């Protein structure tokens, strides 16, 4: 019998490190079970899927909000339809609109910048550091008197360096929104991301840490921002249930304003209650996987370079980030890893978010490309290389997603595959 060469790349005819692909990268969805089905079924059988009224309202969204408030140590949480909705709601709670600029990191999903535009403001882009998160040292470059907020985005489970970001924001008198869409459960110096800035927003979309398919939330320490967020997410109304729950008693003649409809349904709330109960377990498992892999790979491939983090303890470990010496080597590495049946990818087509065509060319569905048509004192101009570290790091930072359902043999096979492939790079 022919001997199988375990050190030979699968691309070149060797045996792959794994006999089958890794589990899909849907951390919350892969641990869904009877609990979510039962709770959602209770809402349906009660014939009351709307949170504020019905024949037998079960208050699922309110319960979810209470759980988030308790665990994140914030006084106010508000369930909404998506994280994009949460961003728009947060921006409007802060009074952001036409004629305003908002600092956005160069590495994030389109929705972060798109929400700014949907709120009728214009994004300006700060560069990233080796965590691929917002670089506090680059904030001054894009700051001017027309900037009215900063959005910090902990990408793929790594916290942002929030102390210098908050120091900068306080110095300039602008609020900070934390977009925690990809990193529910991440911490920075013992505090949960989302509870550090002025407003935090969360995503419960399909490939997020916990999920109901769609859904989002807004959290804040400010009663004023909560009231404005609650109004904006519900056509400008402040329902009696929310007034009574938080002891709010505004004068409707002076406090009310027009909003939109971003209300979370009771079915979504029911599913997320059960998912929220599983969050700590999901995070603990991913962290354990992440730490094991980093140590094992550091031992087997001493020259390997990992994505940095400002707080390793707070990192949720949802993805292992490896920085390759060049974009060409990253492409070679990913191709070889796929043949080994190990998922490996770069982010966002290797391009900063401002390179997305509709952002880069400042195109909207509105007349005269509103809100980009505002006559800013300092015009907003995007160039391809305006955030050089993002341009450099994105095409050579490879991510391996770490599902919470991986077992020890999966981890060992990942180590074997990465080691085998990495050693072949020139």
Automatic annotation (TrEMBL):
Identify the CDD domains for this entry.
Answer: AHBA_syn (cd00616)
UniProt keywords (A-Z) are: Aminotransferase, Pyridoxal phosphate, Transferase
Is Transmembrane one of the keywords?
no
- An MF annotation (GO) of this entry: transaminase activity
Task: Enumerate the InterPro entries for this protein.
Answer: DegT/StrS_aminotransferase, PyrdxlP-dep_Trfase, PyrdxlP-dep_Trfase_major, PyrdxlP-dep_Trfase_small
> Superkingdom, according to UniProt?
Bacteria
Q: Which residues cross the membrane?
A: none
Say which family it is in: Belongs to the DegT/DnrJ/EryC1 family.
Protein name, entry field = DegT/DnrJ/EryC1/StrS family aminotransferase
Show the taxonomic lineage. Bacteria, Bacillati, Bacillota, Bacilli, Bacillales
């Amino acid at each position: 019998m022919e001997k199988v060469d375990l050190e030979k790349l699968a691309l070149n005819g060797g045996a792959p490190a794994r006999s089958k692909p890794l589990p899909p990268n849907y951390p919350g969805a892969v641990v869904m079970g009877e609990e979510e089905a039962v709770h959602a079924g209770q809402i349906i059988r009660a014939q009351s899927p709307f949170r504020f009224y019905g024949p037998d309202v079960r208050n699922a969204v309110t319960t979810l909000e209470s759980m988030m408030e308790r665990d994140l140590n914030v006084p106010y949480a508000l369930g909404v339809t998506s994280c994009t909705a949460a961003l728009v709601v947060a921006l409007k709670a802060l009074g952001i609109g036409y004629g305003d600029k908002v600092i956005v990191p160069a590495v994030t999903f389109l929705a972060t910048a798109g929400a700014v535009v949907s709120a009728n403001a214009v994004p300006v882009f700060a560069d990233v550091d080796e965590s691929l998160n917002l670089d506090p040292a680059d904030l001054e470059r894009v700051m001017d008197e027309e900037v009215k907020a900063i959005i910090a985005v902990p990408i793929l489970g790594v916290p942002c360096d929030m102390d210098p970001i908050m120091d900068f924001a306080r110095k300039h008198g602008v609020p900070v929104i934390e977009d925690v869409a990809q990193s529910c459960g991440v911490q920075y110096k013992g505090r949960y991301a989302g509870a550090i800035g002025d407003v935090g927003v969360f995503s419960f979309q399909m490939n997020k840490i916990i999920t109901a398919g769609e859904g989002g939330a807004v959290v804040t320490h400010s009663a004023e921002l909560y009231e404005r967020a609650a109004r904006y997410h519900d056509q400008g109304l402040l329902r009696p249930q929310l007034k009574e729950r938080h002891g709010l008693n505004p004068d409707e003649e002076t406090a009310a304003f027009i909003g939109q409809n971003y209300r979370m349904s009771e079915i979504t709330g029911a599913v997320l209650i059960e998912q929220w109960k599983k969050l700590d377990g999901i995070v603990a498992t991913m962290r354990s996987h992440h730490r094991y892999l980093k140590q094992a790979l550091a031992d087997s491939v001493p020259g390997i370079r990992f994505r940095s983090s400002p707080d390793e303890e707070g990192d949720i470990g949802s993805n292992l980030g490896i920085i390759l010496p060049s974009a060409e080597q990253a492409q070679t590495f990913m191709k070889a890893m796929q043949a080994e049946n190990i998922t490996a990818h770069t982010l966002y087509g290797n391009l900063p978010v401002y390179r997305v065509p509709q952002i880069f060319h400042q195109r909207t569905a509105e007349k005269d490309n509103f809100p980009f048509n505002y006559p800013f004192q300092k015009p907003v101009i995007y160039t391809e290389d305006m955030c050089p570290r993002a341009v450099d790091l994105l095409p050579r930072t490879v991510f391996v997603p770490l599902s919470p359902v991986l077992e020890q043999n999966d981890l060992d096979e990942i180590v074997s595959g990465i080691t085998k492939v990495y050693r072949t790079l020139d």
